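SEQUENCE-TO-STRUCTURE ENTRY
===========================

Subject: a protein chain together with a token-level encoding of how that chain folds.

Sequence line: the amino acid chain in single-letter code, read from start to end.

Question of interest: how does this chain fold, as expressed in backbone structure tokens?
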Amino acid sequence: MEILNEKFIILSKGFDDTVDITQKIKTIVANSKAKDGLITVTSTSPTVSFLKIENTKGLLTDIKNIVSSIVPVHKVYEHDNNWHDGNAFSHLKSMLMGNSTSIALINGDIQLPADCSVALIDFNNKSGQIQVVVTIAFNKEEK
């Protein structure tokens, strides 16, 4: 088994900024020459989530609205009382949505339907650089 880790930076506006990272993932996989394995996408940031999402009108807005109704931005949270950074909602949204996603790799193809993409959502309350980590686990003799 071989493990390949690649990193890249996304510039984010924060506040639910969403970036399609599908093509970057596909490029990393193509360059790896791996055939069969598992791709995991994660970040060093605790305030982002990754979604495999169908590219249909309104779905992303619906997701953001539901998460915001569960974790309101203007509520007082203990994290904010302790750290005074005002981003407790960012951490909570990310925890609810998940900090990583996994995608099967079969015969060199990412198992993601044509009408779907991998999206990064940055819930933080400020802009910044987000480090994305793509890990591919595959059999060494395949490469």
Observations:
- The longest strand covers residues 2-12.
- DSSP finds four helices and eight strands in the chain.
